[in-house]
Amino acid sequence: MPITLLWAVDVYGRVYSLSTASGRWERADDRLLELKRVTAGKGRSWGIGCDHHVYLNILPSETSIRYREETYENQRWNPVDGFTEMLLPTDRWPWSDVTGMNYQPLHSFQLPSLSWEWEGDWYVDQSCGGEPSQTGGWEYAVDFPANFSPDKKWNSCVRRRRWIRYRRYTAQGTWAKIPLDHPKKPPLPLCDISCGGWEMSDQSGRYPYLWGVSQQGQVWFREGIHPRVPEGSSWEEVEVPKEVAQLSAGPGDLLWAVLWDGNLLVRTGLSLDSPTGTLWKEVDSPQKEVEALHVAVGVSVVWVVTKDYKVWFRRGVNSHNPCGSGWISIGGEMMMVDVGLNDQVWAVGEDRGLYFRMGVTQSEPSGNGWIPVSAQWGNSKEIAPPRDDSEFGGQLTEASQGSVLSCTDSDSELGPADPPANPTNTPALEAEDSSVVPLGADDSPTPPPNMSEDASSAAQGDSPKPFIPTSDSFITSLVSDREKTPTPQPSITELPQAEIGEPSAPILPTLETTGQDVPWSNVDLEGAEAARSAQAMGPSQGDSSTVATYALGLETSQGAGEEDGPVWTWITGGGCDVDASSQISWLSPTGPLTSSLSLTPVQSAAWSEQQQQQEHREEINKKPLERSNSVWVRKGALRWWRDWKPQRWVDVGVALEQSTNSAGKKDSIFFVYYTQYDERKYIHVFVNEMTALVPVLRDCHYAFAVYTTQRTRQRWPLVLAAQTEKDMNDWLSLLSDCCCECRGIKGPPSRQAMWSTTSKGDIMVHEPSFSLEAPTHTLACDLMYWRQVPGHLRCVESNSLGLVWGIGWDGTAWVYSGRNGQQPVPGDAGQLHTQTDVRSVHVYENQRWNPMTGYTDKGLPTDRPMWSDESGLKECTKGNTHPPSPQWSWVTEWAVDYNVPGGTDKEGWQYAADFPVTFHGHKTMKDFVRRRRWTRKCKITPRAPWLQVPPIPLSDISVMPCLAQSRMEQVPVWAISDKGDVLCRLGVSPENPAGSSWLHVGTDQPFKSISIGGASQVWAIAKDGAVFYRGSVSPQNPAGECWYHIPSPPRQTLKQLSVGRTSVFAVDENSNLWYRQGLTPSYPQGSAWELISNNVTKVSVGPLDQVWIVAEGVPGFPSETSGAVCHRLGVGPMQPKGQSWDYGIGGGWEHISVRGNSTEAPRPAHPAPAGLPRSPVPPRQQPQANGNIVGV
């Protein structure tokens, strides 16, 4: 790691540097230098002097800074004298720049400042166009605007040559004054500067830009800074809507400013082409009642200190979103903060100590605690000399002129105090503010024994309130006195502000003087007023020679003769290259502390025992290390499907930002940063608003869709894709964990969960609430949160006892082993198993008949592609067709599929009159087109909590629904095999969810759908569409006795049904939803079918007769993919058919099951009618609806 410097300024304007390779503060070599503020960048630092000039310090390097000055000598040929300097009136100057527009004689070039020196004299550049020439450096041309060449021709009427002179920068390693701009008008005196921009996103390593704020609130930008001109050339004013008090520029393209009214301004549009930006945007202070005091900006972070010294962190800041999205309160009380390299944070505490924010990383930019900068100060070469009156007076004059570093930048004119008539009668004083401190010459900690209680009480009544000292002059005096009296002085106990009394506070122990005058040190005008008041009250304070002492909270291990610790006022880490993993000796959180960790103001208090001081200090030292509010960030790169024209994949940057407050509550935001027409933009999604994270099939990418309530309503999910399967799974897992955490969802799905599958085979789960089926204030379907469960299935069925069965695309039966409703057992490796699923991918070969060649692949221009999908809208060949997603792999080769609905001939062809009509398996005279289906199998092998139930492949399954409080020894499970056989699973229970064996139920034809409802009602649909009811099914007779045929709806063929507690719904092949009327306990077959709705592909009826479907499409969104989850509203005992549909998430949903959701909404208690009290008749128990049909 290269050696870099940390810069700091004390209240006197003295500049100190701290190297990462050492542990001692080093003062600048220029002892007369006094700066108010410093800002640092890579390899250089800038400062504002007390003389209002700007200073530059460039770190020494092996490569010197050289700048080449050049000018051109121009001549024209005439027949008399040849080439001379006598030019035509329309020609350029005889000495000019390369353009000829500016007059540049040799004598006009001056050194820009005293920091430069000439390396030599002017000389002619003998190379023309980079090649040596024998023409003395002359270049010839027909006329001046033409192209020059070293070859002289017969028509060469003009010539020129270049003169060069180098100058070298000689002020590296020192603070050099930047000259005022001439002839341009310089800016008014500056009160703040900030450098940044050297890590612009478009070009890294560029030299920094410099910004300044004048005392009138104007913003200035330093132009012309580049590697050969480190000082820049001129100042340019940047218009601002309001007066600015302070600003901060980050290494990238962030610039924030604090207004005088306490709000903040953000500059947008910063780039290499527009370094001053384009527009200001105003941001409110973190607290409306407290104004902002200071702002610090990094690459993608913003820190703010308010006037109550609270520290705040801005969320969501990025070059695409420079304004951020919200404020996070950070522990600690600071006077100012600075963001350095690697977004590391430095601060000046309220106790005037320096602090570093530990734990700041790219993933946790807010860090996790403050630690002090525990470097040593002083130098063996610097020994504080003894002070006398004349010496101190000289120091005071110097400090008065340049060391005033208050927030108002005002100068104090207060001189030294007049010496008292009696040097032994120096009164004890307490100044009101932290500016002026009376000093004594002795360092004895023992109170004078002749001090009476009367004098003490008189001093208490007349002395001003205690204050916080900000000057270190009295510390220097005490250090010099230690040569005479090395006895250590215990510090004063620090008390909270609420415990400090009013002017009646007791007088502190004082020190006896030895005949020296009492020196005074001024820091600001407010302190000077306190000093004058103290001087006026001096003679009436008492007769004892006393002096007040104050605890600064500073501790040092330095020996006598070394300078005491500075009282800091400014710090900048822009040039200090450290990070959270750096091993820096003075940044050790467990090492010796050189300053107090107290983040509260140091207050004067009564004398206390040394042991109490130590205990109190140890208690305070722990406070900054306690974890406060923090921000965690995960960044990455994905691809985003831009679903507006032109629709295409766009490379974007993404970031997940999670904030944690002191109570442990977390709040997360997901950002997507993209660029459109060279304009940086972003999309943000609050994680608590996400409703689903669904893997999708998009162009063989590892893609997933992010749904929110608003995007669900608009049918406009945010589709993202990763480069690898691991990246996609990592982001899905991270986002899903954040979503579950903010909703309080933990562990596996509950027994009441709603299960569903997508057309891709992913398993999704929703945890229901009481309001989901409430008759009033029903939870909107688009507000439901769906989370993914590992595995891959085609359909899932469940019940309220925690039994979950599923069927894969290859017909394999699976049972869930994830401990529904229970916490996972640590170390239980049996939770996850290897699951396999196989599915077929199809393409269609199409041909058209013509009289000459018969069937051929040459179709009409209006025909579908000769290789297409089933719809014929998309061209799909065997070569460009891939598995559904990269997680799948081929296990077979392409082969003709003969198992196609409608049948095929011996070659697998199906025939039709034209492509849009129905195909059949034999050729007729009117058939002019044909097709055949090619199939290829692929396999996926995930790790999931599912156990295989061998050996029979299934096509449909149903688990008997029941209420959550039900108790059943065996749970009926009915299924249909892939051959159409009806099966009943025996031995199924919550303890043995897979059961023991299959029981075959006899039928006279193959079946395709089955469902079992309350009271063991079993309904089924045969492959020809006929409906059957199984009679006499009971726990004692689980297979029943016989089938009863139920008439189907007229001219309709049913394909799927679902039975609830008292209702039966079915779906036909035309996507119509039917309801069975007239179901009663005495006649469970019902009486007639009633059409409810169309646009339905699957239906699920729950144990409370709630109705959910998978809709074929969403009205108003014709381009939406088929498969949307919908909820039937208004379903109740008096209205079993419901009233309307509530459309939820989609498309691409394949199956849904609500048969485990028996969560009933609480019924409000009916108030007792007014009037006479009711008779004490015991309440009658409410009968259950439908009698024994409900009993399970």
What does it look like?
- 7% of the residues lie in helices and 34% in strands.
- It is mainly beta and 1192 residues long.
- Strands 7, 8, 9, 10, 11, 14 and 15 form a seven-stranded antiparallel sheet that branches. Strands 25-26-27-28-29-30-31 form a seven-stranded antiparallel sheet, with no helix packed on it.
- Strand 35 and strand 36 form a beta hairpin.
- The radius of gyration is 43 Å and the shape is elongated.
Question: Which features would summarize this protein structure in a list?
Answer:
7-stranded antiparallel beta sheet; 7% helix; Methylamine Dehydrogenase, Chain H; elongated; PH-domain like; disordered C terminus; mainly beta
In which range does the helix fraction lie? under 10%
Q: What is the count of β-strands?
A: 72
**Shape category:** elongated
CATH topology group of the domain at 5-63 and 187-374: Methylamine Dehydrogenase, Chain H
Strand content: 25-35%
Region (Disordered): 379-519, 1154-1192
Protein name: Tectonin beta-propeller repeat-containing protein 1
GO molecular function: lipid binding
Subcellular location: Cytoplasmic vesicle, Autophagosome membrane; Lysosome membrane
Brief account:
With 1192 residues, the protein is mainly β. It has 7 helices and 72 strands. Among the domains are: 5-63 and 187-374, Methylamine Dehydrogenase, Chain H, CATH 2.130.10; 66-169, no CATH class; 630-746, Pleckstrin-homology domain (PH domain)/Phosphotyrosine-binding domain (PTB) (PH-domain like, Roll), CATH 2.30.29.30; 838-940, no CATH class; 947-1153, 7 Propeller (Methylamine Dehydrogenase, Chain H), CATH 2.130.10.30.
